């Protein structure tokens, strides 16, 4: 590193569910693109001018022309996008996983390429590349050639499902792969080699890959070659980054990295990580309810031409030296949306389909979000749900809902949502004795309701609140938003990737939703969502 360091990067820089970071610099602007899985729109992007403060700047796959997610499984959809720039255009390659599961089964994982003159678009129509693997990246060499790299998938019983990194030449003008696929790197003894990114420096091609699986054994491996197709030699100090030998680190699961240089020649590594709770699940794992997040580490290059962490060792740090010109800005403790705009803001995402006026309406009742009830929370399509990420282990969310359920198949409310199999919800519905507020738990598709106690409501205009404190969630209801009545305090730590009986890759969302199982036109109006982390 060079210069006098004046600020510190505080990790994670993207808090809450932001996995598989692809970092890119164009001029003086840095971009981070991250996976979105079944959440719509696809591929969230943040920008920064100093690597310290990151601002969301929308989603790249925001038209059904570019992305269709209807019916994709939990933790399917967009896996590990890669954002690059060839000097004239932005390029994005991404996987849309339609089916995944056992190691001995094929994945339905088509990969696509789109490009645009600017990050805002317009993006070209997707070009299909291959379904032979996942985690694609696209590298342009100075001679004008382009190489698609991806994690090859071998579903044959008895074979290594992660045989290594494949490379295939790509002709962007023709929109097709050319020549033959080559297996260029088989990884190390860590295994589960995936997530390739290729860089050039001082006559070397550096291949950065993820290994060890995307949980607590995750790691960053680096190899290099004089040619893009190898042969590659592995870093003598491998792994470059991992948390596996340091269970007490605040940042766990460190892996799946990409590199970037600054205009002054400094280098940084973007990687995913997780912040676990202190408690353990029944399966012995420590849960990371916020999902996999994005962090940055500073790099140096040794005289031997290999990169190393600037602060020594291979463990991720929370505080990292920033570029000299960086100036830290405080992170707001309170976020609020009063639904005054014509569309949902960048913080919001929906499940598997865009927020269209037929079910997500900001115009019929100005200043309110109207959700028209559709499928239940365990459905793989047609859910009337909008959510924003839970991004701290201590947070509170509150809303005001106005609705008139006519029977028990009409309901609306405030949820902590991980996926169709795991969620908690505070809902307003109608029982035999009138309107009720109650809490429901769905844990690995097993239902329990009501948790705690149900409360009779005088009317359907009420305030709802959830307070999340280090894995416990307290759900409360109020008539005026000031005097709160607690219904239940629930162990919410099962809302995580590590839940027993499942395997997930996302994170917990705070969500507003409405359900109508008879299709009679039930609607719920939400006045605001306030989310705060100073609790």
How large a portion of the residues is in β-strands, by DSSP E?
Answer: over 45%
Q: What do the pLDDT scores average to?
A: 95
Low-confidence stretches are 1-5
CATH architecture of the largest domain: 5 Propeller
Biggest sheet character: 8 strands, antiparallel
Report on this model:
The protein has two domains: 8-321, Glycosyl hydrolase domain, family 43 (Tachylectin-2, Chain A, 5 Propeller), CATH 2.115.10; 334-532, Jelly Rolls, CATH 2.60.120.200. The protein is built from no helices and 39 strands. It has strands at residues 8-10, 22-26, 29-34, 39-40, 42-48, 55-61, 77-85, 90-97, 111-116, 127-130, 133-140, 146-152, 164-171, 176-185, 194-201, 204-211, 219-225, 233-234, 241-242, 252-261, 267-274, 293-301, 307-309, 319-321, 334-337, 349-351, 360-361, 369-372, 384-389, 394-403, 410-419, 422-431, 434-443, 446-456, 461-469, 472-478, 485-491, 509-516, 523-532. With 535 residues, the chain is mostly beta strands. It is 0% helix and 49% strand. The strands form eight sheets. It has an eight-stranded antiparallel β-sheet, with no helix packed on it. Strands 25, 27, 28, 30, 35, 36, 37 and 39 form an eight-stranded antiparallel β-sheet that branches. Strands 15, 16, 17, 18 and 19 form a five-stranded antiparallel β-sheet that branches. Belongs to the glycosyl hydrolase 43 family. One of its GO terms (biological process) is carbohydrate metabolic process. This is Xylan 1,4-beta-xylosidase.
